[in-house]
Every structure is written in C-alpha cells, then in structure tokens.
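Can you make up a protein sequence with its backbone structure tokens?

===
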Amino acid sequence: MLRSLDITDLLIIDRLELGFQSGLNVLTGETGAGKSILLDALGFVLGWRGRAALVRKGAAQGEVTAVFDLPAGHAAHQVLEEAGIPTEEGELILRRVNSTDGRKTAWVNSVRVSGEVLRALSDHLVELHGQQDDRGLLNPRGHRDLLDDFAATAPLRDATRRAWSARRAAQSRLDDLRAAAEALRQEEEFLRHAVAEFDALAPEPGEEDRLDAERRLMQAAERIREDISKAHAAITGDGAEGMVRDATRWLDDAADVAEGRLDSAIDALSRAMEALGEAEQGIAETLDALSFDVHALETTEERLFAIRALARKHGQLSDDLPAFADSLRERLTALDASEGDIAGAEASLARAEAEYAAAAEALSAARTKAARKLETAMAEELAPLKMERAVFEVSIAEGSAGPDGRDDVRFLVATNPGAPAGALDKIASGGELSRFLLALKVCLTQDVQGLTMIFDEIDRGVGGATADAVGRRLKALAEGGQVLVVTHSPQVAALGGHHWRVEKAVSRKDGEEITTSRVLALAPEERIDEIARMLAGDRITDAARGAAKELLAATPA
C-alpha cells in the first residue's frame, strides 16, 4: 500500500507531502489543477517512462519520494533480494531525483538502483488504469497473461515452459548433429583417403629426425669407411699392436737386469695395449655400423621423403602427424556413428514434442475452463454498471507454439444485443470502455494482495446512476486494499473514504507570475463544498450543497 508521496520542485509543484490511507482515495479538482502531475510524479519515482522535462522552472533538480507498506510475503521482497537490497521492517522507500540536465538517479532503501529495478518493483506495487489502458485490456498481447492470472495457471505454465525448453534443446541437438554429419559427409572422401594414407605409412613421433640422421650417415659412409679400415689394419695384426707387444716382451726380458728402471716403461706399454684394444673394438663396431647396401639408403630416403610430403600436404609438423591422423580417424568414426546418433536425437525430440504437447494441452484446458468462468464473472460485474445487455467473450484460438503454450487469447465484446463481438477498443465507447475495464479489474484482482490500484478518470463519459455504479464498484474493489481515483464525477467522489482536492494557485514574484499546485485533505464540511462544486460549477448554490449532502449520506459505511 502507498503510504506517502513527497514531491519537491516537480513541474508546478514546489513542495508537497501527501499521506494516503487504505480503502478508496479520491482526488478531485478543476481541469488543469495538476491532478495528472501527481500521477506523473508517482510514475517518475516508479521508473515509468513519461515526460522528459519534469524539473520545476528555476529549480536545480526535482525529487520524489514514495513510501510503501511492505508486509511479509509481499512479491516485491523477491525483487529486492535479487537486487541485493536490504528490506526495511515493513517499509519500502523509493526516492528518485531528476536533474535539469536530464540525469535521473534512484535509490531504494538508501541503495542506489537502476530504473529497471524500480520498474520491476512497480509491477508488484502499483497498477495504473485509464480509458486508454494499452498495458492490459486494450492490448491483445496482454490478454493471455491476464487470463492466466485469473486462472492461477502458474504451475501449468511453468511445466509448459520447461517442456518447451526441453523441446528446443532436443531440436537444437538434432540440428547440430545433422549439420555436423552433413559437414563430415562433405569431406567423407577426403577423410577415407587421408586415413588410408596414414594407415599405410604409419609415421611415428621423432621418425623424421631419426631417418634424416641415418640417411646422412649412409651418404657419408663410403667416404669415411676406407680411412677407418686403414686405421683398423694399422693397429691390428703386425701393425702397432704387434710392435707394442714385441717391445713389451723385449723389455720384460731385460727388466731383471735393469733393477726396476724399466718398470714404468713396461706399465705404460701395458696401458697402451689396453687403449689399443679399446680403439680396435670401437673401430670395428663403427665399421659394422657403416656396413650397408645401396637398397637400404634408397629405402630410408623414400620413407623420409614420404613423411615430409605427407606433413606438407596436411600443413602439419612431421612429429604431429600421428596425432593428426588420430583426429581424422575420430572424424571418420563420428561420421560412421552419426546415423545412429541422429536416430537417437530424433527419438528424443519426438518424446520432448509429445511432452510439450501434453503440457500445452493441459494449460489450454485450464485456460478454456477459466475463460468460461471469467465470462460469467464479467456478466455479473457488468450488470451493476448498467451494462447488463453487453456481452464479454474470451476467444481462445490455436496460435504458434511457444513457451507459454499455443493459445491466442483475445478479449472481445458486444455492446448491443445480436451484434457480433469485436475488439474492445473498436466496439466500446469511452464510457463503456471505462466500465468494461473496471469490471475486468474487479474480476482479476479479487485475490491480489498489497497492490495499489490507480484509476485515472475511469468514470469519464458516464454520469448519474451509471457513475454511482462505477463508484460503488471502485469502493468494493478497494475493500481490504487501496484504490486511488482521479475523478470528475461527484457520485464517485462521494463514495471515497478519503478525499483530496487538487488546486492551482498563481502568485507573483519579481514581477513574474508563478503557478503552483497544491493538494488539500478535505474535512467533512469541505467535502460537501467540493462535491457541490462538482455538481454545480464555480457558483455553489444551497441546492448543490443539499445534493452533495444527499450523495454523502447515501454512501454506505
């Protein structure tokens, strides 16, 4: 419930503090007095899009603060929690400032927020309705949501949305698999040929370096093998090894007579013999390694060149060829398996479509049942509004499938007996439109708690008994809640539990006329004069006061 509204330097309001009550609150005043400015101010602090220039002339900025009662369990708590805003005990304070340069800054419970947060909160705090209520009754796009609210279809709608999401996911997976399979089929010939090439060659990591080293060694082998063979001959047989062996034998024979002088020489020759043996072994092993035939060189070169050619062909490093070959095999395996994967995805999609169809059908059945109930409720509400011969219909046709089902919902009316039903804004006059709107709100908001409803001149175009009926429906709608009505109808004003008069004053400052608007809470006697003015105009007569007293006296407690 809206508890208070404070406005500073906005349009023609310099300073205004309003305190509202539960029940039916009426605001009256002459045309141009500023009643619409109050709605502009409330819309501004709630983040609604409205006038661009709001700051009062001569002021640096305009400011609006709205305080709402926020009981436990109110839907606005979830918005606050998602936005990370602490909740004051039973109270919600919205404040928004508009600077002369157009910048707008907002706070919720002293936490700075965006306009989106304000608008999200406003959805749970205030509903504004007028004759051109394009946010609801006149906008067919909103009719399905209104019917769902009336039917309390939230669980069925959630189930339908989940089924729709599952269906979309299944369709997306199938589309992806088909696209991937098609892409693979486009390169199937390449894949099979490439995999066959890799299978035939079977390159290994590091093989290019190894083959290159073997090739270079074999190419140089002929040139160096002759020299190595000569060296081998020089240190074997009667060569160096034989001479060292003879020298050692001769020195051994002379060692006894030399009295130790040859011991070091003999030891050196012994070590030389060991070194010559090691050299001979190394040379022999090298000669064995250099033993090859021309065919071995040709074979090595062919494989080396084949590996390098394959690497160039696929734009890979030779060491990466085995891993690349594995990736080609995986793509080929995926192609071979795609038919089975697609069949499985098609089966999953069929199941998801069946589940969505069942959920959408259950939702449609609930809507159809609620539509008949709403038509009956509307007939009961229209009768007191002097429209007992009017017909309200809820049309449900099959539309495109979507997350909220397949139903295309439209509210249709016929105001004359026998006339075909049509779109509300095309059939109903201004006064009829107001009453249809009011009746619909009575039907749709019976179970809504904590919502402030504002009706802007909804009684325009009606008078007498019809205006009285409108007022009584508004009063009934306000029971247990809060309704604010901007009205020119004395019958509606007389039914208000709380009455404010909006008036305009003109003063002069520094030779310039300044227009300001103020709002006065009316005492019982002041209400009589205000309603009399609404009945008779500027010249209030005793008869008008008498009629005003009768209207107030006829108001039910």
